[in-house]
Amino acid sequence: MQKNGAEDRTLGINKDRGMALKFQSKMRLVYIVLGIMSSFILGYLYYSTSMDKIYRHEMSSLTVSVEQLKNQYDEMIETMKDVSYYLLSDPDIMHNFWNFPDVSQQAVSKIQHRKL
User: Fold this and answer.
1) Which region holds residue 21: left if phi is over 0, alpha if psi is between -120 and 50, else beta?
2) Cα separation of 105 and 100, whole Å?
3) DSSP string across 6-30
4) Which of 17, 49, 92, 105 has the smallest CB count inside 10 Å?
5) Residue 24: what pLDDT?
């Protein structure tokens, strides 16, 4: 009869030692899995913080560009307003504007007169 820890004469190995190797293999496997999981978690945290920084940087750049475009358009519209006010303040232009159908009738009669 064999006692615990005795060698198995048919296989030539110690049964207790075989159990220890299985436990060590399991522990190594657990440490490897934990290492891989922690690598994924750290990688995800790095990725998310990096993307957040990139997003904030791009949004600030976009805000500056939009503000510049807004100022350019406001300036262009202000120039158009000034020209419009100048044209509308001229009495001759206003007179021609209100009498535009009469002006077009005169132009048509001049064209017909030249054809004859």
Assistant:
1) alpha
2) 9
3) -EETTTTEEHHHHHHHHHHHHHHHH
4) 92
5) 83
Q: Give the number of domains in the chain.
A: 1
In tens, the pLDDT along 13-48 reads 555 555 666 888 888 888 999 999 999 999 999 999
d(CA 51, CA 44): 10
CB 87 within 8 A of CB 93: yes
Contact 88, 94 (CB under 8 A): yes
Measured CA distances, 3 to 8, 9, 20, 21, 67 (Å): 10, 12, 17, 20, 86
Range of the domain at 27: 7-94
Residue 1 lies in a domain: no
Judge whether 114 lies within some domain.
no
Q: Is 67 among the domain residues?
A: yes
